[in-house]
Amino acid sequence: MSSDTPLRILFVTHGFPPEFEGGTELYCMELANSMLGLGHDVRVLTGSAEGADRPVVERHALGDIPIYQIRR
After folding, report:
1. Residues 7-44: tens digit of each pLDDT
2. Is 34 helix (H, G, I), strand (E, B) or coil?
3. pLDDT digits (tens, 9 = 90+) for 48-58
4. Other C-beta atoms within 10 Å of 5: how many?
5. Is the dihedral of CA 28, 29, 34, 40 positive or negative?
6. 56-64 LR contacts (CB < 8 Å, sep 24+)
């Protein structure tokens, strides 16, 4: 793999904006945006404080960052 080959990166964090906006969440968002800016394929897997009748994964985006949010 050359240094020009885009990486596939998955960030896994307990929370992510806009639902959570603490230090870890904002740092992860900035890092994800930076990696996208370098041409890498980035995704975020995160949790939610909101429950669901059954576990579900919802897909949405924050800007250019694809987010997969697990609701339990």
Report:
1. 999 999 999 999 999 999 999 999 999 999 999 999 99
2. helix
3. 999 899 999 99
4. 8
5. positive
6. 62/16, 62/17, 62/18, 62/29, 63/33, 64/33, 64/36
**Residue 3 bridge partners (DSSP):** none
Question: Of 8, 5, 24, 6, which Cα lies nearest the Cα of 46?
Answer: 24
Question: Which residues are CB-neighbours of 10 under 8 A, at least 6 positions away?
Answer: 42, 43, 44, 45
Residue whose pair of structure tokens reads 């394929």 in the numeric block? 41
69/56 Cα distance (integer angstroms): 8
- Residue 53 in tokens: 């009748």
